[in-house]
Design brief:
Number of helices of chain A: 6
Oligomer: homodimer
Order of helices and strands of chain A: HHHHEEEEHEH
Structural class of chain A: alpha+beta
Shape of chain A: flat
Strand content of chain A: 15-25%
Helix content of chain A: 40-55%
DNA sequence: CTTAATGCAAAAACTTTGCAGTAGA
DNA sequence: TCTACTGCAAAGTTTTTGCATTAAG
């Protein structure tokens, strides 16, 4: 369980496992991912309004340091946080109409990444790929709208 | 020439071609790319200190609307602007040590993008791929440092 | 002339931090 | 106890905007 991993990392760093941190972690892990700080904070506040914005901010920073969260920025400029599940890497399809973000995994991409890196004598640690466009739902809606005219 | 394209778009929109806009455009096009607003502004200010920060801001926004510039955010969180040369699409290798950004083009990537899109019934408009790691120079420097120890 | 663009300064929107009080280890 | 953590408020940053003035069409 992720919570245990968190506790281990906390004690290894001689830090403290507080109820605020655990609450934030749980909400963050349960979340849909791709939320910005304000969104995460508002969920936390719903369950415990006593927890301050800066605690959420600092906890997410801590989780990032622990490799349990990643800060991402998509083209809309929003800084969002996403939980990192151990191991599996995924990329994103971003719908420019409704803003929905779909995750996908692709092995070929991983291979391609290595080929490109080799070409430039780059030592890759990780990559990030985002495909922007219109999702099936929005495309359908657009079709329907078109027919009504 | 890009300047002509700019002038056409300006007049099509019944906007005005000012010397400020042209100066900013020229500096931006000549630039190395991947600069943030403050960096672009400081270059502009060097040549004409009368031009204000907001004019640079608004011009870059205009260029983005025109499809002549793109706002990009890498993992360091910086918002940077990059000139879009007509047609050719490229992606980025980002060195986590020195911060250098190398551009590359890859056809396979374009094909892969379409395959993935099809799988999710996504209608792709564009993509973005970034490879993070250590560039050849930094890797070499690290090697040398290691040997000295 | 008419209307968009500029430059300044100020507002807004985020992020980050200092510090006194609180609570884990 | 001892030291890290929290919450608040305040300070930074960066991005946007209102408005009187200027200049392009």
């Amino acid at each position: 369980m992720e919570t245990n991993r968190f506790r281990t990392l906390i004690s290894e760093g001689r830090l403290k496992a507080t109820k605020q941190r655990e609450k934030i972690l749980n909400i963050f892990l349960k979340s849909s991912g791709h939320q910005n700080l304000a969104q995460i904070y508002s969920q936390v506040a719903k369950e415990n309004p006593k927890i301050g914005y800066s605690t959420v901010y600092r906890t997410l920073k801590l989780l990032t340091r622990f490799g349990m969260a990643a800060q991402r920025k998509f083209v809309d400029g929003e800084t969002r946080y996403e939980p990192i599940a151990g191991g599996s890497h995924h990329d994103h399809l971003v719908c420019l109409d409704c803003g929905n973000i779909i995750e996908f995994e692709n092995e070929t991409l991983e291979i391609l990444q290595n080929n490109i890196a080799q070409q430039y004598r780059f030592k890759i640690s990780h990559h990030r790929m985002e495909l922007y466009g219109r999702c099936a739902d929005c495309e359908l809606k657009k079709e329907i709208r078109r027919r009504k005219r």
